[in-house]
Amino acid sequence: MNLGRLSAIIRKELIQVRRDHITLALVVGIPVVELLMFGYALNAVTDHIATVVFDQSGTASSRSFVSSFDNTGYFTVRRWTSTREEAMRAIDNGEAKVALIIPPDFGNDILGGRPATAQLIVDGSDPSVAQTAMFSGGLIAQVQSATVTVEALNRLGQTSNARGGIELRPVVLYNPRMLSVKFMVPALIGLVLQLQGVLLTALAVVRERERGTLEQLIVSPVRPGELMLGKILPNIGLCLASTVMTLVIARVLFDVPVVGSTIELLLLTLPFLFGTLGIGLAISVVARNQAQALQMTMFTLLPSILLSGFLFGREGMPQIFQWLSLAIPMTYYLEILRGVILKGVGIQVLWPQALALTVFAIVTLGVSVARFQKTVE
């Protein structure tokens, strides 16, 4: 082995890496982003579960019971509702994971030393959150039950035979058996669609550039916007067909049927697909070759897995990462998938998510066309 020739090859490779700014940025950037996300954003412990309260009692005892939930750190009371239906809507649209329902006679039963009941309605679409909510809620009810029982005994002048206390009755919605497959399968459908959509278009312009046909397109009468739409529309059809196929597989192999309307789900999927295909086009305009396009695609996939609620609830993340997750289309599409597939809700509930995806699609496609025009010029 000739060390001189070997060192020359090494110097050549280092020079190429230094000149390839995009690849160098990805090589340096991906480990930093992974470390930050795994170190700060991911929280395997489920806490700060979004909760709404429907307190029909309106007494000091009921408010004290609600405060005991809010003070543990496992639950965060977002708001108080005026009707049971309003509390249920908050769970349907994803605003809350838990609804605490307190009946009208709750306070009087506690004051009279009688058993008081409350209901904990839990969104079972995320089994880990549901299990934590039920376990933590049960412990809180036990502690509060012992406290109110002692207070009732002292108040009534008794020392034993207490019949009072608090009984918390949990109800699990959408996924009563709390099967993890019902949580993961809709999320995997979204992940597969994003990966497919971004890859299909990320390689589009790059492939033209590597084949030498991009120059022919540039000198043709085709406008940049027409070229972008021409790259996107066929892939929209492919992705919609893939969506139908994955829904069939989810039903047949994993017993995860679409509870809501399949037509509405496909319509709500369109803005997500346009947004992901727009991301792919933006990548294809920036990347110089297919290797860079693949690296960038993987880089965009990482935040979608870690920050969107794909694996862990967003409630337990630091506030800054919760804000960052709002810029990720997968965050909204996961709510749509789980909402339609598991909860059976439709566009009347999920329109905010659809609106956010539509805005994202318009922005990404506009940036892609503008960037391509600049590249052509």
Succession of helices and strands:
HHEHEHEHEHEHHHHHHHHH
Radius of gyration: 27 Å
How would a textbook summarize the main sheet? 5 strands, mixed
**What's the number of structural domains?**
2
Properties at a glance:
single chain, 377 residues, alpha/beta, abc type-2 transporter like fold, 5 strands, 68% helix
What do you see in this structure?
The chain has a five-stranded mixed sheet, with helices on both faces. Strand 4 (115-123), helix 6 and strand 5 (165-173) form a beta-alpha-beta unit. It starts with a helix and ends with a helix. It has two domains: 49-173, abc type-2 transporter like domain (abc type-2 transporter like fold), CATH 3.40.1710.10; 179-376, no CATH class. 38% of the residues are buried. The longest helix is centred in the middle third of the chain and has 31 residues, at 224-254. Helix 2 runs parallel beside helix 12, helix 7 (180-202) packs across helix 14 and helix 11 (262-286) packs parallel to helix 15. The mean pLDDT is 83. The radius of gyration is 27 Å and the shape is elongated. Helix content is 68%, strand content 10%. With 377 residues, it is α/β, with parallel strands linked by helices.
Task: Summarize, please.
The protein is α/β, with parallel strands linked by helices and 377 residues long.
